[in-house]
Amino acid sequence: MALTKKITRSLMLAAFGVALATPSVALAQDTGASVNGLTGNAEAGKRDYRRWCVGCHGKEGNGEGENAPYVDPRPRDFTEALFRWRSTPTGTLPTDQDLYDTITRGVVDTLMPTWSPLTPQTRVDLVAYIKTFSPKWQTQKAGTPITIPPEPPQTIDSVLHRRQLFDQMQCWKCHGPEGRGDGPSAITLTDDKGEPIRPYNFHDGTRFRCGETNQDLYKIFMTGLDGSPMPSFADSLKPQDAWDLVHFLRTLQPNVQSESRTVWLDYVKTHQGQIKPIGAESAGQ
Hints:
This protein is mainly alpha-helical and 285 residues long. Helices cover 40% and strands 1% of the residues. It has twelve helices and two strands; from the N terminus they run αββααααααααααα. A two-stranded antiparallel sheet has the order 1-2. Helix 4 (96-105) crosses helix 5. The termini are far apart.
């Protein structure tokens, strides 16, 4: 953890150095940004981007900054306007709020830190400037955020149902039978740039890159992570099934206190020897 913080600080300082030496680049059309009653200014965002972001994301927003070769996973390429952490359906642009939330939250387990110390206005200005890197923002509107239905009770029936679906849908081939991100397909996965990408490790992780709540996890299933092998299941999962999956995946997280895990552990105590391992049938083929 200390090493990661040191590297992050070094990259931030390097980004500042690059900003001082970066020549001016013409600003594309400003499509604006609006979050929580604040209006973003792309020109102001440009100055802050050159100070804090250019070292990784590059002066042209293509993810090819001076530090990019040393960053894993690679910085986001804003010129493609392809974002993973969204509230909108797969294949659509994120909302201004989505971009603002990512800047504010940071991306856990990467070198993208939280930028919450910046003022809300500065973050909205950054959103406005980021949107100038791709012409998609001039011709397309952001998608309509999906509706997240109320979370149902976390019961053993919910957990067992989704555990069965997790097995049948072969989610374990990427995420592993115990959710450690070590399934047989894990080493073959690549992102939209052809870069290796690792499935999320539920067993060791406590936060997701898109947030940390059950609602955040539900949103992943229904929107997908565009640019990654994780698809949207909006067309194949009913809302109840998606919630069941949320509850099951929480049982794979020993470092996170959750009602689902408590329910599961109580069930395991009384059903020793009766629980079939995930992936057992495929392993025997």
